[in-house]
Structures are given as structure tokens and as C-alpha cells.
Amino acid sequence: IPVWAFHNSGDMFVPFTSTKSTVSEIKKLGGNAKETIYGAIGHDCWGRAYNDPQLFAWMKQQRRQ
After folding, report:
1. How far apart are CA 36 and CA 48, in angstroms?
2. pLDDT at 39
3. Cβ neighbours of residue 27 under 8 Å, at least 6 residues apart?
4. Which of the chain's ends, N or C, has fewer CB atoms near its CB within 10 Å?
5. In whole angstroms, how large is the CA radius of gyration of the chain?
6. Please, are residues 8 and 37 in contact by the beta-carbon 8 Å criterion?
């Protein structure tokens, strides 16, 4: 299942490096993953992600492998 992970560098609860390492491990295992790391905008990155029209265009293109 393709993964697009979103995070931000200013998250005070979860370090963005966790997302980067998770995406890296998925790729090492042959998975389809990518990440977007936003600038320091606090913990809420989902509002920005959901407002990005590229997200929904990407979702429509994905297929289970």
C-alpha cells in the first residue's frame, strides 16, 4: 500500500526524524513511500496536507500492489 507521510520540523511531541526513518525503512523493504516535511508549524500538519490538491490527485493514482 503506497504511503505519503506528512510531518513538520517543529512538532513538539513527535520528532520529524521518526517519520523520515520510517519512510526510509519502508523504501528499504521495497515499499512505495514518500514524505513531506513542512517547516516549523507546530503539531498540526494535517490541515496543510489536506488543503494540498496534490494529495488527492496522488491518492487517485495509487493502487494496491
Report:
1. 11
2. 85
3. 33
4. C
5. 12
6. yes
Residue 65 clears pLDDT 70, i.e. is over it: no
The 10s digit of each residue's pLDDT in 33-50 is 999 999 877 777 888 899
Supply the pTM of this predicted model: 0.81
Of 31, 11, 33, the C-alpha closest to 20 is: 33
Place of cell 523493504: 29
Are 11 and 46 in contact by the 8 Å Cβ rule? The answer is no
Q: How far is residue 34's CA from residue 14's CA, in Å, rounded to a whole number?
A: 18
What is the CB-side half-sphere exposure of residue 32 using CA atoms within 13 A? 9
